[in-house]
């Protein structure tokens, strides 16, 4: 078994220490090595917080070379990420609960809290990580303190603040595999006794990790040029921090961020499974020569010929451009010696432009190209009042307001070189979504005696959304059809009860009961059709956890363990089905019936006193996540009645939107496009929900003389088999895998310089957590028949996945000035 092989490996232990920061309520100063967290929006020892979380310190971020949330996932069992194309962004799951829909209108089930700014858009997770102070991964629903969009958990990130002394850092790194250069510069220090400033900037340029072996068939709409190194581009990230402390009772912290990401080719999709081989049933060579239909470093994606796709953006080269501006103004004021008021004002604006060929074909261009412009803007305001009285009763009271909007502009262009006589622009449309959300929350914490805390709290949220759409079926010039789907209104209570028993200074037992939800929204994937309701409903969760936290063996060992059990209803999941009579995929978000997850989280850190500088860590997540009721899920393309596509009979369609193609001729497409439309997925595992994830590792630091230190680290991650796409097919699964990482660094001049070599995924595993099924062999033209006794000429859908990078080797040089 692969797990046995991992037990011999090791995992770089998270070092749970941070500087005390007044910005989250009364300061909690711990002993040396104390773990200070802000899971309840105030500083507390992790030993006293009734929340399961993984904390990654600034030192570990640097040692492990953490520059993205994908790197974070390798250190936090239960956390998995999947990359999605266009404006969708990163899809995040904790314990198998997360966003699986290719829909920019959906909020993530795992929210991102960046310096107090609450974000739930997938693109926000693409922000690179640098100059971080601490990362906290909070597992399970966090509705009380982090709002309505956290039914699965929260990733809370604090960036570094200016210190009391002047600091300058220059850092340069090079990844030899992707040809990626990355540079960072940080200048920080006090301008006066009350004012500090920190300015940080990062720039990276990559040639592209994946190799593109596409062979353009120019007579079928492919451009003659090909981007041979796929996924390259450049990123700019600028951050400014101003910290103002005019008095001991008042702190003002301003964070301003700007990011620019330009990616050539978009997401690294490639074929992972071709159940019918690489035969092009229409006689058009959509498959590239030599296509191996497996995850590796080689993919096949052609550029689009602007002559075949009139109006295509970027000269026909698939791309994604992302611009983000965001920041927070945090004010902390001690209105009394034991009473602190916090105000957090947040602003976020995202602009993206993207274009892809519909099925990422490797020889002939796809039948459809999609290009989009997406904007999301949010203004938020939160107020919190925290008490820290010496008596048995304390409280937190607060309110939150959000004013948001999303604007999505979509064009579906058709390949004129294929000769089907379709209009150059199949559909074009816009959708304008407005969001208004207000909530109040509070928690009472009562200690009948010093070692027992009973905390009860609730959040009430009132959220409203509306969508205004314009759709044209004849191209860019119109005429446009105005469509207004029904308004969405959610009014929900999210109560929480926790018991925390601190038996000794080194042992805590806790339990919690929680309820949370995530608001419904609108499908913004494709232009809206008149009469269509593109809304979906709320996602809700109820359950609880029981856990133990302990420091053992003279505080050399820290242990954290919990059992959790949650029921979800209305789980928002993404589905992919063929539009009746056209073959064009319909991607949308639906509410599944019910799901249940339960399992155990365990982690342990050991720092032996006889061996200073040595840290050993182990972390395990066992998770059972299944749909308990999901009747009526759409069938995948080519699924027969015998394979389970046997629910909801569909009428035979005789619609012929493309006169050059016959949809009812049995000699061409096997008769009627479909017989049944749906299946029963009850009992199926949730997407991105492996039963087991295990991390093991160690790090060691030793002095080698003359102010020089040598640092070693190694870690290994085991992940069991997991589902990557919604359906019962065996090739929808990612097989179990092990990834091994190692790092070595030499630090000299009493910390003035450092040279580090970081090797990730040494075993060169190509893995995925995000796949979709599509009719690749026919570029989504009709021919794949579902719900019939036999398949149509297109056979079964192929499986398309975004694969994580294989082996990465990075050399990094750091200079403190």
Automatic annotation (TrEMBL):
Chain coiled-coil ranges: none
Membrane topology qualifier: Multi-pass membrane protein
Domain TonB-dependent receptor-like beta-barrel as annotated: residue spans: 316-745
Gene Ontology CC: cell outer membrane
Record's subcellular location: Cell outer membrane
Lineage top rank: taxon: Bacteria
Matching InterPro entries: Beta-barrel_TonB (IPR000531), Beta-barrel_TonB_sf (IPR036942), Plug_dom (IPR012910), TonB-dep_rcpt-like (IPR039426)
Keyword terms of this UniProt record: Cell outer membrane, Ion transport, Iron, Iron transport, Membrane, TonB box, Transmembrane, Transmembrane beta strand, Transport
Domain TonB-dependent receptor plug intervals: 47-154
Similarity-based family: Belongs to the TonB-dependent receptor family.
Protein name stated in the entry: TonB-dependent receptor
């Amino acid at each position: 078994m692969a797990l046995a092989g991992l037990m011999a490996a090791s995992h770089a232990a998270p070092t749970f220490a941070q500087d005390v920061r007044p910005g989250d309520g009364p300061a909690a100063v711990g002993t040396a090595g104390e773990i200070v967290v802000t899971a309840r929006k105030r500083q507390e020892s992790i030993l006293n917080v009734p929340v399961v979380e993984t904390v990654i310190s600034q030192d570990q971020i640097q040692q492990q070379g953490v520059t993205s949330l994908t790197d974070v996932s390798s250190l936090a069992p239960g956390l998995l990420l999947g990359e999605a194309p266009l404006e969708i962004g990163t899809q995040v799951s904790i314990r198998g609960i997360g966003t699986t829909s290719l829909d920019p209108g959906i909020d993530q089930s795992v929210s991102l809290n960046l310096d107090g700014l609450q974000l739930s858009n997938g693109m926000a997770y693409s922000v690179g990580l640098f100059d971080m102070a601490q990362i906290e991964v909070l597992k399970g629903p966090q509705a009380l303190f982090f709002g309505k969009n956290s039914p699965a958990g929260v990733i809370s990130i604090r960036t570094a603040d200016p210190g009391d002394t002047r600091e300058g850092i220059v850092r340069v790194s090079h990844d030899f595999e992707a040809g990626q250069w990355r540079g960072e510069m940080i200048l920080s220090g006090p301008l006066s006794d009350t004012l500090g400033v920190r300015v940080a900037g990062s720039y990276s340029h990559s040639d592209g990790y994946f190799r593109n072996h596409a062979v353009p068939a120019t007579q079928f709409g492919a451009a003659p040029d090909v981007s041979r190194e796929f996924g390259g581009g450049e990123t700019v990230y600028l951050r400014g921090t101003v910290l103002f402390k005019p008095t001991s009772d008042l702190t003002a912290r301003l964070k301003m961020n700007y990011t620019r990401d330009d990616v050539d080719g978009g997401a690294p999709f490639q074929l992972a499974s071709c159940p019918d081989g690489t035969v092009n049933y229409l006689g058009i060579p959509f498959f590239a020569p030599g296509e191996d239909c497996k995850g590796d470093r080689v993919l096949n994606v052609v550029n689009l010929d602007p002559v075949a796709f009139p109006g295509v953006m970027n000269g026909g080269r698939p791309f994604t451009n992302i611009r983000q501006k965001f920041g927070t103004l945090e004010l902390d004021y001690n209105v009394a010696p034991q009473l602190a008021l916090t105000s957090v004002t947040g602003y976020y604006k995202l602009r993206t432009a993207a274009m892809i060929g519909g099925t990422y074909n490797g020889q002939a261009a796809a039948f459809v190209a999609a290009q989009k412009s997406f904007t999301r803007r949010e203004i938020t305001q939160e107020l919190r009042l925290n008490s820290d009285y010496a008596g048995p009763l304390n409280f937190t009271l607060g309110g939150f307001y959000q004013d948001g909007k999303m604007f999505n502009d979509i064009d579906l262009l058709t390949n004129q070189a294929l000769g089907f006589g379709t209009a150059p622009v199949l559909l074009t449309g816009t959708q304008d979504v407005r969001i208004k959300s207000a909530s109040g929350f509070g928690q009472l914490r009562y200690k009948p005696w010093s070692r027992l805390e009973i905390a009860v709290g609730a959040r009430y949220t009132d959220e409203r959304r509306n969508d205004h759409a314009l759709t044209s079926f004849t191209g860019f010039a119109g005429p446009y059809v105005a469509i207004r789907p029904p308004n969405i209104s959610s009014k929900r209570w999210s109560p929480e009860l926790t018991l925390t028993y601190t038996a000794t200074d080194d042992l805590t037992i806790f339990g919690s009961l929680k309820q949370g939800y995530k608001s419904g929204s609108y499908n913004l994937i494709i232009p809206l059709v008149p009469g269509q309701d593109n809304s979906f409903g709320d996602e809700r969760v109820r359950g609880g956890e029981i856990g133990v936290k302990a420091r053992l063996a003279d505080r050399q060992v820290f242990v954290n363990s919990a059992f959790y059990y949650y029921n979800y209803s209305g789980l928002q999941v993404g589905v992919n089905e063929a539009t009746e009579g056209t073959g064009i995929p319909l991607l949308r978000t639906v509410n599944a019936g019910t799901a249940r997850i339960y399992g155990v989280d365990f982690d342990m850190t050991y720092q032996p006193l006889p061996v200073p500088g040595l840290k050993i860590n182990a972390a395990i997540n066992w998770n059972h996540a299944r749909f308990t009721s999901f009747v009526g899920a759409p069938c995948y393309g080519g699924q027969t009645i015998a394979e389970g596509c046997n629910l909801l009979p569909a009428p035979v369609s005789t619609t012929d939107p493309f006169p050059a193609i016959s949809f009812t001729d049995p000699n061409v497409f096997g008769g009627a496009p479909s017989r049944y439309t749906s299946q029963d997925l009850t009992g199926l595992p949730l997407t991105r929900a492996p039963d087991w994830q295990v991390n093991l590792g160690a790090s060691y630091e030793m002095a080698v003389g003359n102010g020089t230190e040598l640092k070693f680290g190694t870690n290994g991650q085991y992940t069991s088999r997991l589902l990557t796409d919604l359906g019962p097919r065996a090739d929808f699964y990612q097989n179990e895998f092990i990834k091994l990482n190692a790092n070595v660094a030499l630090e000299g001049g009493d910390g003035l310089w450092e040279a580090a070599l970081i090797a990730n995924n040494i075993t060169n595993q190509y893995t995925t957590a995000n796949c979709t099924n599509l009719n690749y062999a026919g570029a989504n033209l009709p021919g794949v028949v579902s719900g019939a006794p036999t398949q149509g000429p297109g056979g079964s859908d192929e499986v398309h996945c975004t694969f994580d990078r294989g082996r990465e080797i990075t050399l990094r040089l750091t200079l403190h000035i």
